[in-house]
Design brief:
The complex is a heterodimer of chains A (about 270) and B (about 160).
Chain A: E1 6-10, H1 35-51, E2 54-58, E3 75-78, E4 81-84, H2 93-105, E5 109-112, E6 125-128, E7 131-136, H3 142-152, E8 155-160, E9 173-175, E10 181-183, H4 190-199, E11 205-207, H5 210-214, E12 221-223, E13 226-230, H6 234-242, E14 246-250, H7 253-256, E15 267-268
Parallel strand pairs in A: 1-2, 4-5, 7-8, 10-11, 13-14
Antiparallel strand pairs in A: 1-15, 3-4, 6-7, 9-10, 12-13
Chain B: E1 3-11, H1 18-28, E2 32-39, E3 48-56, H2 59-69, E4 74-76, E5 80-88, H3 95-105, E6 109-116, E7 125-133, H4 136-148, E8 152-153
Antiparallel strand pairs in B: 1-3, 1-4, 2-3, 5-7, 5-8, 6-7
The chains are: A alpha/beta (about 270), B alpha+beta (about 160).
Chain lengths: ~270, ~160
């Protein structure tokens, strides 16, 4: 039996159609999303993950909640505990119930963030080595970091996000296998850059250019030496290839209309 | 020197020798003076400014001195302060550095009232810090910024 490389939760984009509200700079109310293309990209992502021996769980979508497809924001999963999200924007708050319901059904022990704090799950919390790096200001409050660090007894390194286009950590910070980090330095302030340079070996840092970052290259899913991401530049592909990474490109442009790409579409359960 | 008060002077405090008169009078009274802020007007029309902290062993002596200094245009300074707590991985995340930089950049002062540094990797560090400034609006601006960095107002 082949070992499972990773486990993910995804939610099919059955109700992912037009952009009906604006909660990030990528969204423009009234934009039409091609549901068929979105479904095709989503299927390609699921197939890519399963081809890499990952186990993909799915949860049912809900009409009136088009952003429920972005399951990375459901929670932070650590061992058998799921710290559920508390969305900053009211438009996404109904999703909290559906995500929690699914996680409970899978026997995760649920932890809830206090009502006065915002926390948007794995979108703003990514493990790299022994640390959990967590973004704050735009969608997650730094107070949530302290709360989660206490809950899970882990060290959290807080990184302030200073460019509203990169409103979640996973849009500008992508830890990769073997200690590598692909990131967009200008999304962070000088303190964040100092922290990153201190915690990652300089030979393992892969800074990306603005146009690459705006193409959501950092919103990628990495399993082993494979990286699944939106279409990106030849320059970045060469840089990653030189470090023995293979890129699987999928056109996520329909999801980028809502401000998400590959990583946003799946919550890592392991 | 248990009794303290800050005074402020504004205007032509150098040309008129009022600053030196104030310092002389403080010394003659047996009190201690330390100049906390001083700025000299660059043009004839621009005011100079000084803020002086006075320390005395006697409340009565201090009160009498403050009253006397008014003839030189020196008055008790308005001081606004708030106390905050911050805890978490505030050293590793440079949050403490950021908060202190915000206070410095806002030209306010701070007093570190308590600090505990976590020893183990997952341990929290803790700081209790008092922010002091002469301007109410400035204190509000600094408060808003450091609360975003995780500082909790306690007083």
């Amino acid at each position: 039996m082949t070992a499972i490389t990773a486990k993910f939760l995804m939610c099919p984009p059955d109700y992912y159609t037009n952009i009906n509200y604006e909660i990030n700079p990528w969204m423009k109310k009234g934009t039409i999303c091609d549901n068929a293309s979105a479904k095709d990209a989503w299927e390609q992502l699921r197939n890519a993950l399963t081809s890499l021996k990952a186990k993909v769980f799915t949860m049912p979508p809900h009409h009136n909640q088009p952003d429920i497809v972005f399951t990375a924001n459901a929670a932070l999963v650590y061992k058998n505990t799921a710290v559920t999200s508390r969305f900053r924007h009211t438009e996404r708050r109904p999703e909290e119930f559906f995500y929690a319901d699914w996680l409970k059904s899978q026997k995760y022990s649920l932890e809830y963030i206090p009502e006065y704090m915002s926390f948007e799950g794995e979108g703003d919390a990514l493990f790299a080595g022994e640390n959990l790096y967590s973004g704050y200001i735009t969608r997650t409050d730094i107070a949530a970091h302290t709360y989660i660090a206490y809950l899970l007894n882990i060290r959290i390194i807080s990184l302030e996000l200073i460019d509203e286009r990169f409103y979640h950590l996973d849009t500008c910070f992508c830890p990769l296998e073997d200690g590598y980090l692909m990131y967009y330095p200008k999304a962070f302030d000088e303190y964040g850059n100092r922290i990153i340079e201190h915690n990652f070996h300089k030979n393992k840092l892969i800074p990306v250019k603005e146009d690459e970052a705006l193409g959501f290259c950092c919103n990628a899913v990495n399993i082993g030496n494979k990286i699944i991401m939106n279409k990106t530049s030849d320059r970045l592909k060469n840089v990653l290839a030189q470090r023995d990474f293979d890129i699987i490109e999928i056109d996520f442009s329909e999801f980028i209309k809502a401000g998400g790409s590959a990583k946003c579409l799946c919550l890592r359960l392991s | 020197m248990d009794y303290k008060c800050s005074i402020e002077m504004k205007g032509e405090i150098f040309d008129s020798l009022s600053l030196s008169s104030v310092l002389d009078e403080i010394a003659q009274c047996g009190c201690l003076a330390s100049i906390k802020e001083i700025s000299m007007g660059k043009t004839k029309n621009e005011d100079s400014h000084a803020r002086i902290k006075i320390r005395s062993e006697s409340r009565q002596k201090l009160d009498s001195l403050i009253k006397n200094l008014q003839k030189y245009g020196a008055y008790p300074a308005s001081v606004y302060s708030k106390t905050f707590e911050v805890q978490g991985h505030i050293i590793d995340s440079l949050i403490l550095s950021k908060i202190l930089d915000i206070i410095y950049a806002g030209k306010a002062r701070f007093e570190l009232m308590d600090i505990k540094i976590g020893i183990e990797k997952n341990d929290f560090s803790y700081v209790k810090i008092k922010v002091i400034t002469a301007e109410k609006q400035l204190l509000k601006t600094i408060t808003d910024k450091i609360v975003q960095q995780g500082a909790v107002l306690i007083d």
